[in-house]
Amino acid sequence: MVTIGTSSLEVYPLALGGNTFGWTTDEDASFEILDAFTAGGGNLIDTADSYSAFADGNSGGESETVIGNWTAKRNNRDDVVIATKVSQHPDFMGLSASNIVAAADASLARLQTDHIDLYYAHYDDETVPLVETLGAFDALVNAGKVRYVAISNYSPERIREWVDTAKDNGFAAPVALQPEYNLVARSDYEGERQQLALDNDLGVFPYFALAAGFLTGKYRTQDDFTTHIRSTMAKGYFSDSGLAVVSALDDIASAHSAEISSVALAWLLAQPGITAPIASASKISQLLALLAAPELTLASDEIDRLTTASDAV
Predict the structure, then answer these.
(1) Is 214:18 a contact under the CB 8 Å cutoff?
(2) 74 pLDDT higher than 90
(3) Quick one: 143 exposed, middle or buried, by C-beta within 10 A (0-12, 13-18, 19+)?
(4) How far apart are CA 111 and CA 100, in angstroms?
(5) Is residue 194 in some structural domain?
(6) CA-based nearest residue to 281, from 25, 3, 4
(7) What is the DSSP string of 175-233?
């Protein structure tokens, strides 16, 4: 287990993404995945209040509802760490103080809990002064509705401003950062964000850790991109240089008798500041490879080979 930044939260170094729950995975299948994840040692579930408003027929909050139903049925709320986010639900857009409070209460109701362990600002809202946004997050912490606050999809400048504003006003400091980061998308984290995370002891949770499935190795040709709803997300990573990364992953996976996805996640875990990659599963059979990643130790030359291949993307 690893500790999230300066918090007291301890988590398995692989987070389960809840974006498929209530979207491509129905409630029964979601329960099976959640059961298997926790049985395998996992305890951090990452979601957002907007999941999955982007899907036809959904209005947002579906993922939180599934997770809330699961914890209620299993009576295991205290055994898991739940992270969710605010600013993108169609009914609760933005980061004004009143909106954050209302959105948090709505999330708590869907999750059937009295507290959110880790509450992210999902996307920046530059129309609202940071002091107002941070004051609202701080009030939720003081009220016991949120244990810790975190940041996702913020520019380095705004992360720095958030940290300074919290310090200057005595607000709850952020403990985590969630950037897009994987072997075929490194620029969002490496550099300034990485240094800010290290300097401020922020736990880092890369999303799209497997590049929407591209780094599992199942997309080797254009023909592999079917009409499946999630394949369109992976298609954005497809390129000759991306395929070279997959080929390197394949070689290293074979040497370890491991899955390609395990190796891709293990590379992430070997990078400075990374606490736990976030990866989702639409079926239980995919979970074993995800949960195996923290136990897979790559040799330095294997890490270097993957990094070099990735440099060309």
Answers:
(1) no
(2) yes
(3) exposed
(4) 16
(5) no
(6) 25
(7) EEEE-B-BTTB-TTTTTHHHHHHHHTT-EE--BSTTGGGGGGT---SGGG--S-TTHHH
Q: What are phi and psi of 35, to 5 degrees?
A: -60, -45
Q: What whole-number distance in Å separates Cα of residue 2 and Cα of residue 189? A: 20
Residue 61 lies in a domain: yes
Helices (H) and strands (E) in the chain, counts: 11, 12
Query: Is there a domain that residue 191 lies in?
Result: no
CATH number, domain of 109, equals: 3.20.20.100
Q: Are 279 and 267 in contact (CB under 8 A)?
A: no
Q: Looking at the predicted structure, is the pLDDT value of residue 227 above 60?
A: no
Q: pLDDT (tens digit, 9 = 90+) per residue, 99-133?
A: 999 999 999 999 999 999 999 999 999 999 999 99
| pLDDT confidence bin for 221, thresholds 50/70/90 | confident
CB-hemisphere CA count at 13 Å for 282? Answer: 11
Q: What pTM did the predictor assign?
A: 0.96
Can you give the pLDDT at residue 233? 73
Distance between CA atoms of 21 and 288, rounded to whole angstroms? 18
**pLDDT digit string (tens) for 28-55?**
999 999 999 999 999 999 999 999 999 9
Reduced to 3 states (helix: H, G, I; strand: E, B; else coil), residue 144 is coil
* Residue-range definition of the domain harbouring residue 63: 2-178
Question: By three-state DSSP, how is residue 27 classified?
Answer: helix
Residues of the chain with pLDDT > 70, as a percent, come to 97
Q: What is the mean pLDDT of the chain?
A: 96
Is 90 exceeded by the pLDDT of residue 231?
no
In a domain, 243, yes or no: no
Q: How many domains does the chain have?
A: 1
Tell me whether strands 2-3 and 10-11 are parallel, antiparallel or unpaired.
antiparallel
- The answer to whether the beta carbons of residues 118 and 148 sit under 8 Å apart is yes
